[in-house]
Amino acid sequence: MKAVFGYVLIAMAVVVAYCCDCPKDGTEKYYKHEDCDKFYQCANGEKVVMICPGHLYFNETVNLCDWPENVNCTGRNMPVRNVLVEVK
Ligand SMILES: *[C@@H]1O[C@H](CO)[C@@H](O)[C@H](O)[C@H]1NC(C)=O
Ligand SMILES: *[C@@H]1O[C@H](CO)[C@@H](O)[C@H](O)[C@H]1NC(C)=O
């Protein structure tokens, strides 16, 4: 029984470390999202999903939405957008 309880504690610690990185003092912070054109913004200690405006991608180095040619999307999902519609 003791061993089972230990596993539960470890599992909870992992979930907390993954889900709640936002500073509890409300400090503004940004995290990359699984999708390249989205990011998380910390608001009052909670993660909120934001989407980059236009066709910008989130650049985690500068914590800003940046031009796609500046951003490395490796390991993240490429947004599905029809660029042909955007011809000006
Ligand atoms: C963020 O942008 C800078 C310059 O615009 C670029 O050098 C850097 O590789 C970018 N980082 C990512 C993670 O895309
Ligand atoms: C992009 O990021 C991946 C994973 O972090 C890395 O392996 C790759 O070298 C990077 N590519 C460029 C062009 O920076």
Q: How would you describe the overall organization of this protein?
A:
InterPro entries: Chitin-bd_dom, Chitin-bd_dom_sf, Chitin_bind-dev_reg. Residues 1-19 form the signal peptide. Residues 22-75 form the Chitin-binding type-2 domain. Pfam families: CBM_14 (PF01607). The protein is elongated. The model is unreliable at 12-18 (pLDDT under 50). It has one helix at 2-19, and strands at residues 30-32, 38-43, 46-51, 57-59, 64-66. It has a domain at 23-70. Strand 4 (57-59) and strand 5 (64-66) form a beta hairpin. With 88 residues, the chain is an alpha+beta fold. It has a three-stranded antiparallel sheet with strand order 1-2-3, with no helix packed on it. Strands 4-5 form a two-stranded antiparallel ribbon. It binds 2-acetamido-2-deoxy-beta-D-glucopyranose (2 copies). Residues 72, 74-75 line the site of one 2-acetamido-2-deoxy-beta-D-glucopyranose. One 2-acetamido-2-deoxy-beta-D-glucopyranose (NAG) binds next to loops.
